[in-house]
Amino acid sequence: MSVEQTLILVKPDGVARGLSGEILRRIEAKGYSVTGLRMFTPDRELLAAHYAEHEGKPFYEPLIEFMSSGPVVAIRAEGHRVIEGFRSLAGTTDPTGAAPGTIRGDLGRDWGLKVQQNLVHGSDSTESAERELSLWFA
Ligand code: DAT
Ligand code: MG
């Protein structure tokens, strides 16, 4: 198994709630290396490329709207099986049901809004990690 890299985003809700440090702490505490870090408000063009697989779904527009509403922290993390490992740290998409111990399970909940504000994004495969890292760390 070779060393992988993945794209992690602290979404605008995570940044606004002051959880960027806690999320970075959990990534490092698990033993992964942070090899890139950027903080900025992404534009719609970047988000459309990032979320291309979801275009046309009912939650797509609110998702793009939410993700462009404020700064995000983009993290390039590295380690053996980091793609799977961070998805496990993050927990399931819906934070209400995410297991305690995970980022979404411990720190997230349903705020009654259309878009699930679930604190983080993590690439889901080697192909998407490569594609997403080239967008966020061009
Ligand atoms: P994940 O972020 O766990 O990889 P995903 O790639 O399926 O989940 O979806 C991307 C984001 O879109 C997700 O983090 C939150 C939002 N989303 C997904 N499914 C949704 C739904 N049914 N309703 C509202 N937002 C949703
Ligand atoms: Mg996804």
UniProtKB/TrEMBL annotation:
Supply one GO BP term: GTP biosynthetic process
Top-level lineage group: Bacteria
- Which Pfam families would you find in this protein's record? NDK (PF00334)
Q: Is DNA-binding one of the keywords UniProt gives this record?
A: no
Residues forming the catalytic site:
H121
Class of this enzyme: transferase
EC annotation from Swiss-Prot or TrEMBL: 2.7.4.6
PROSITE patterns cross-referenced by the UniProt entry: NDPK_LIKE (PS51374)
Q: Mind listing the UniProt keywords for this protein, alphabetically?
A: ATP-binding, Kinase, Magnesium, Metal-binding, Nucleotide metabolism, Nucleotide-binding, Transferase
Name all Nucleoside diphosphate kinase-like domain ranges: 3-138
Per the entry, which co-factors are needed? Mg(2+)
Q: Where does ATP bind?
A: K11, F59, R87, T93, R104, N118
Question: PANTHER family in the record, alphabetically?
Answer: NUCLEOSIDE DIPHOSPHATE KINASE
Q: What family name appears in the similarity comment? A: Belongs to the NDK family.
What the entry lists under NCBIfam families is as follows:
PRK00668.1
Protein name per its UniProtKB record = Nucleoside diphosphate kinase
Q: Which gene encodes it?
A: ndk
